Amino acid sequence: MFKWAQQALANVAGTQEPIYGPEAIKTVAVEAETTPYTELTRDDLKWQAMDSTCVETQSFYLMSDTGKLGFAQVIYSNVVGIRTTCQFNCKIFDTDGTEPQMWSSVQLSDHEFSEDKSGFYAQNVAVELSEDGTTFTIKSMVDEKAPVNLTVKRLTPGFKAGKTGKTLYGTDLANPWGSMSHAFWTRCSAEGTIGSVDFKGKAMFVMALQGMKPHHAASKWNFCDFQGPTYSAVVMNFTTPPSYGSTSVTVGGIVKDGEIITANCKSAVTHVQVKGDTENEWPEPSVIKYTWTGTTKDGKPVEAVLEGALEERLDRIDVMAEVPGFVKTLVKAAAGTKPYIYQYNPRKQKLSLKLKIGDQEISEEGNLFSESTFISE
Fold first, then answer.
1. Could you tell me which residue ranges the Svf1-like C-terminal domain spans (predicted)?
2. Residue ranges in 14-85 assigned as alpha helix (H)
């Protein structure tokens, strides 16, 4: 069968794609060779709400001053331009063994966007971006067990890799059939509550767009959210399926209040030790290493490493069992797809970011939230 016909079938039915090879992907790292990163404007945070197959998310990762860890997220999903669904997710992790973990995932009704696409609304949900583009308010009453009232304010300019932040997929990259992009507010303050838990503290915001079926765009993911007293660091890494050459794409950055230290596509993630998951045979990591390499705006070299044991996982999410039905629709026909998300927050021995900026060496202990996701071989 011609590859274009196979692609058309995959788009509709969710089947595996043929092998196009690495020439069918243009990663954002190509742009980042000449423009390592671009500071975000308010326009970068507007919803695209594509008419074709996509999954678009706004995610807020929360670390309270009291040690609580939480998460709030809006998902917009379009399946082949036929069915659009929106979901509101929130979570409070049991980080100290004193309280049960709380997870809420509710399909939304009557979604709409503000006129300029900066705000999202649905029945009993509102996520709004301030006029000056520095603050999000997140309010939800869709689950009476988990009312949400949060304010997240960026303390440092946001960034995307390269000029556009986009990785493109397709055999004609001038007219790509898919894309992946991320935009980050790496260091934010947070105020407000999920349920009865006060989340005054630090936060990270990520806006992501997968402009194709998620399991066609990536087979594996790694994510790092490190928050220290002075510095914050992020890594977002994904590996494509063999259809696109099992290509690895990594975006990372290090910031402090008011300043991006460095950001680019030169970060790396290594699963230093793997213990594996006997229940599903995925290579669950036990020791992880994140690295950053780059330069400051004034040309000073930057190197950083964050390495250590992940300890016992916070959670293992069987995506097919846990997430809403629209995601199952996207992946149910894809052979070999068994997505699991592993989440960690080392607590017995907190990890330290070891940072070198020019001749200055810094070591800062902080709070790490780490995710490793396996979708397909």
1. 212-376
2. 28-32
As given in the structure block, the two tokens for residue 115 are 């006129």
Average pLDDT over residues 346-371: 96
319 vs 74 pLDDT, higher one = 74
Residue-wise pLDDT for 63-122, tens only, equals 999 999 999 999 999 887 678 899 999 999 988 766 678 999 999 999 999 999 999 999
Contact, 217 vs 240, CB < 8 A? yes
Contacts for 281 with CB less than 8 Å, ≥ 6 apart:
none
Which tokens in the block code for residue 248?
């690895």
Measure the CA angle with vertex 190, ends 269 and 366; round to 5°: 40
Structure tokens at 59: 């995610």
Residue among 271, 231, 257 nearest 356 (CA): 231
Query: Could you give the C-alpha distances from 201 to 61, 150, 223, 349, 373, in angstroms and in order?
Result: 11, 11, 20, 21, 26
Q: What is the pTM of this model?
A: 0.93
Q: Which amino acid makes up residue 269?
A: V
Query: What is the C-alpha separation between 226 and 352, in angstroms, rounded?
Result: 9
Domains of the chain from N-terminus onward: 16-374 (2.40.370.10)
Nearest to 254 by CA among 167, 366, 341, 346: 366
The HSE-up count of residue 292 (CA atoms within 13 Å, CB side) is 31
Amino acid found at 330: L
In the block, which residue shows the tokens 């399946």? 79
Of the candidates 345, 233, 342, 360, the residue with the CA atom closest to the CA atom of residue 291 = 233
Q: pLDDT, tens digit, for every residue of 26-41?
A: 999 999 999 999 999 9
For 246, residues 6+ apart whose C-beta sits below 8 A from its C-beta are: 219, 239, 240
Task: Give the CA radius of gyration of the chain.
Answer: 20
- Length of the chain as a residue count: 377
